[in-house]
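Researcher: I'd like a structural prediction for the single chain below. Treat it as a standalone chain; there are no partners to consider.
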Amino acid sequence: MAETIQKVVSEITRGTRHPVYLLHGDELLSKDGAKAIVDALVPPEQQTLNVEVITEDRDLASLPVRLRTLPLLGGSKVVVVHDSKAFVSKQNLGDLAKKSLQAWQAGDAERALRLFLQAVGAAGEGEGFLERAGRGELSDPEWERVLGMEENPEAAPWLREIAGRAVADGAAIPEATGAGLAGIYEDAIQRGIPGNASLVLTAEVVDQRRALFKRISAAGVVIDCGVRTGRTGETQMNPDRAREKIREMVAAAGKTIAGDAVTSVVERTGFSIRALESEVEKILLYVGTRPAITPADVMEVLSNSRDSSIFDMTNALCDRDAARALRALRGLLAQREPIPPTLGRIASEIRTLIFARGALEQKLEGTLDPGMAYGTFQSRVLPRLQKKVEGDDGSAAKLLEMHPFRAFNVLKGATRYSLSELVRALEAIHETDLALKSSGSPEDLLMERLLISIIGGE
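Model: Treating it as a single chain, here is the predicted structure.
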């Protein structure tokens, strides 16, 4: 059965426990939730003897014995396995690749590499694939089959960097062992876990069609940590949970934070808890002994990073704010960000706005109140986007693939442009690309002219 962490912990404190718990989704949320469950099952003073945290690759064969070994001084026994690969299948390779890309964008190269190699191994690929990927030579079918996505300007730098690092480091590609691992878990559950023992698993990516997932759902508890949209692979927090997490961290440090400052942090981290925690820690270090965090503090700390500058630029495009867009562009240029990926991000944002413009015309009568609250959007507008209408070209469906908060902001941005303006923007991007390659004009000047042209509607 599917539950929440809070409900499960409450049940345990009332005496209801289950033989197996699976927490999947955001890595840190899952591990925090697992710790809360373990703390509820076994008092902290008993955990040294009664709780075992094992490594799946090395220790899983001994799982049945560990579950049946009684604690030396009595009490409950818990075995914990983090980052399980038993739920990975060829059908959800794209989820692993997407999570690797998200980790790379959040600056977590180690996690990005681990998830990428899991996808490569599960697909049955080897070193040749890594070498081609590092050189940017993958075919379109390989992008689709192994990474579950089409080649695009946002993902291409990630793939070259991660695959290149894997080759340079001689990283080992894990074997496609999902089915074998799952068999050990299934056997342990089928034989029966002792009444005083529990198995706690965490996994970032799960294929809910696997027999193991269904068996755990029937025999124990499955907790979805972070999935809010119902789409495969979506493991980000919703905005309310992100805001709550920020306030928890700030309060734990004995400080307060202004509402506008919370909103700025949420927007810049995209609701990834790993990125969110990292950025809040930076802000806490920056404010030092001051008791309150202001919006100015957030801007000072987060506006200098590459991801924040890119976010500021694309957000300014949506808001049709030329001054902010130019400031963000200059920040990227000052950080020596290569021009081609930056141009690619601008093109990607314009294409997204075109989809949003199409959804506005087909599903929302061409308009959206720019002052609408996000909660109102969720309750009133999202259902309208999901309805089938005659002449639907799929624009709304592409929006629904996004996180709802991202779709909310993109739709608001689309109200500020006409479709003809957005089409002309794509033409201007193409012309700028050609000029960058052949004209010899200064790159910064060409890029600034492009932004002014798009935002000014020239």
